[in-house]
Design a protein that fits this description.
about 500 residues, Pdz3 Domain, repeat, periplasm, PDZ, alpha+beta, 7-stranded antiparallel beta sheet, 6-stranded antiparallel beta barrel, EC 3.4.21.107, Thrombin, subunit H, elongated
């Protein structure tokens, strides 16, 4: 056996030498190839401010269950790349297969989970993710030295997945960290993640900023920092630091088929976190600005119809009667391109900046109306998160007796009679020309227009009958326009803009 080992050693000696040479070449490269030297200094300075978040929850086990209760998990959009990861994670943390009660008896049981967080005030204030503490009966903060302290919930914001905790500081002085400016982060800049992956305790990883303002469709205010710093299960709620030791983000999500880090992690930027934390500490709830409009994307076709070059901004599809935008003179068809001095490139830009603006503040809003820029002053209201919008289910039925129709744009159009209102359950407040048929091969079908929709305006002018629509479409063709902009209402009166080809 010994001879065999010596033989293999001699046999692989050239390979080892080659590897050593390669290592020598790497070592001769600049030190920055291994990352900046300041990482150790930053970690040493902030490690005591990073805490583990331990939660427990009593759940009722269903009799005869063969798997653990999933418990509370983050609400993610269907088909999200994170669904599989969180399904896996929460199933495992609640007990996994075999975690059900024996003999079919439903016995309450206590489940535990661990996450990460960080101290922002030596008076005993910590920040973490909402999904780390969601539905917990008891929350404990575990310091870097192992000290365990019971914590209370100050408030949560589900839309940004953030939570603020308070606890009684121990005799030993606490270390708190400060927030940095996430807006100043550059692509390729080094960042450091510290947290509690797989319950291992304070773990430091480093990487770069891979992307900024990343929208992953997990919420209305998505603007994540993407990083390749290793983030794993248990890192949720932990801080992402810059090389000055400032918190620039809160580690929240990863993309991973296995649940382990593959170098694609996401952190809520400090710009968002600061506003949420301040509001939760002051009011115990989040108070967001409210404009009182419904918005949609400005597509290339819509931009061409509105004489906007290049396509940009947020198109106002509807204005609430009791909202702040109404008295300011903002109307459907306006395109918001600047809000409170900030450029609006797409609808989510407007959602984020409005939500982050103080309630009651008067702001300047720049709109484009019929190809010209105009300015409006708006005093923001407060968004009521408890105003749940219930989408009414509507059953569209084909009329028993087909009315007289006229064709245009691949649509069968008819006057909005009393009979059609009843059949399609259209509110009395909705005015215009009703669609009772759509050519499946038309642009209208591709844009999801359907029977029961009502055309309210064509090229930003009201229409009362099908002849009006045909006349305006014919005129646009003569003028050399490629598309026509329709303002369309559903049965409930909710409006949206649709651009259809006139060629």
């Amino acid at each position: 056996m010994t001879g065999a080992i010596r033989y293999q050693s001699r046999r692989f000696r050239p390979l080892v030498a080659a590897i050593c040479l390669g290592a020598a070449s790497v070592l001769s490269a600049p030190a920055l190839a291994r990352g900046p030297d300041g990482i150790a200094d930053v970690a040493e300075k902030v490690i005591d401010a990073v805490v583990n978040i331990s939660t427990s929850q009593t759940v009722e086990a269903k009799g005869g269950s063969s798997g653990g209760d999933r418990g509370a998990m983050p609400q993610l959009p269907p088909g999200s790349p994170f669904e599989e990861f969180f399904d896996d994670f929460f199933k495992n943390r609640r007990g996994g297969p075999g975690g059900g009660s024996r003999g079919g008896e439903a016995q309450p049981r206590k489940t535990n989970s661990l996450g990460s967080g960080f101290i922002v005030d030596t008076a005993g204030i910590a920040v973490t993710n909402n999904h780390v503490i969601a539905d917990a009966d008891e929350i404990n903060i575990i310091m870097n030295d192992g000290t365990k302290i019971k914590a209370e919930l100050v408030g949560v914001d589900k839309k940004t997945d953030l939570a603020v905790l308070k606890f009684k500081p121990p005799a030993k002085p606490l270390v708190a960290v400060k927030f940095g400016d996430s807006e100043k982060l550059r692509l390729g800049e080094w960042v450091i993640a510290i947290g509690n992956p797989f319950s291992l305790g304070g773990t430091v990883t480093a990487g770069i900023v891979s992307a900024r303002n990343r929208d992953i469709n997990s919420g209305p205010y998505d603007s994540y920092i993407q990083t390749d710093a290793a983030i794993n299960r248990g890192n949720s709620g932990g801080p992402l630091f810059n090389l000055d030791g400032e918190v620039v983000g809160v580690n929240t999500l990863i993309i991973s088929p296995s649940g382990g880090s593959i170098g694609i992690g996401f952190a809520v930027p400090s710009k968002t976190v600061i506003g949420v934390v301040d509001s939760l500490r002051q009011f115990g709830e989040l108070r967001r600005g409210w404009l009182g409009v419904r918005i949609q994307q400005v597509t290339d076709e819509i931009a061409e119809s509105l004489n906007i070059k290049p396509a940009r901004g947020a198109l106002i599809a509807g204005v609430e009667d009791k909202g702040p935008a109404k008295p300011a003179g903002i109307e459907p068809g306006d395109v918001v391109v600047k809000f409170d001095g900030k450029d609006i490139k797409e609808p989510k830009d407007l959602s984020r900046v409005v939500a982050g603006t103080a309630v009651g503040k008067e702001v300047d809003v720049v709109i484009i109306r019929k190809g010209k820029e105009e300015s409006r002053k708006v005093t923001l209201g407060r968004l009521q998160d408890d105003k749940a919008v219930q989408a009414s289910a509507k059953t569209k039925e084909e009329p028993a007796e087909k009315p007289v129709t006229q064709k245009a744009l691949g649509l069968d159009l008819a006057p909005l009679s009393k009979d059609l209102r009843t059949r399609y359950k259209i509110k009395d407040s909705v005015k215009g020309v009703i669609i009772i048929g759509v050519d499946n091969a038309s642009d209208a079908a591709e844009k999801r227009l359907s029977a029961g929709d009502v055309i309210v305006e064509v090229a930003q002018e009201s229409v009362a009958n099908a002849a009006d629509i045909k006349k305006r479409v014919d005129q646009l063709k003569k003028d050399g326009k490629k598309s026509v902009l329709l303002l369309v209402s559903n049965a409930e009166g909710e409006l949206r803009f649709v651009a259809l080809s006139v060629q």
